[in-house]
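Record 1 of the preview.
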Amino acid sequence: MAVFSKSVALVWILIMQSLAVPAGVTYAADHVIRVIDFTGQDDGSAVAWLEQQGFEFELNAKGLNPRFENDALVISTRTEAAGLFGLRFAQQDYLYGVKRVEIVWGVNRYPEGADWRNGVNSVPIAVMLSFGTEKLSSGLPLGIKSAPYFLSPFIGKKEEQGKMYIGKLWQDGGRYFCVASGDQSGKIITTDFEVDQRFKSAFNQQKTPPITAFAFQKNTSNTNGASEAFIKKITFLSE
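->
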């Protein structure tokens, strides 16, 4: 009987050891809905890869020299520029029940002069999460650039971390959040960005629509311009 008990105990220990997950690895209990991964690519231009994935290039996106470098997608400019890389999800691919997103990214060089508090709404890098399909006014005439609700976490330098900002356009449906502040040049930043409650609070809604599009952008307008940033991965989670 003692030998049998010891054998059972040994098997139990081996099973538990086999289930152990190293630190930093996502548990199945986190309920990953979708991952957009920019790592694991050979160094070089990212234009063809982004097009193959379905990304659309807005404004001067190609001028940001999107490229794979150091196991990340890098965007940069030496002058004032603005560009956005957008991915619209097909209706059957809408992301329902997203509670939070995890973004792995960073800034190598901040644009000098960006300062949301004083009206210079520039960003070295920002992510945009669009919700639902209802189009709201951009603030431009004739309905130009109307867009669904969106939340946009961004990395800043002078901005207040955790603060919600409203831009000059899309004031009805757009909210921007500084998720990292201060000079963190060259550091890999992992952002855990709550989505569900933040959407309901920001727009006074009872229910959060599905995420229907994803984008990342850089805007160095009204700054000294030169800037470089990178993004590695974004993970959409239901818990």
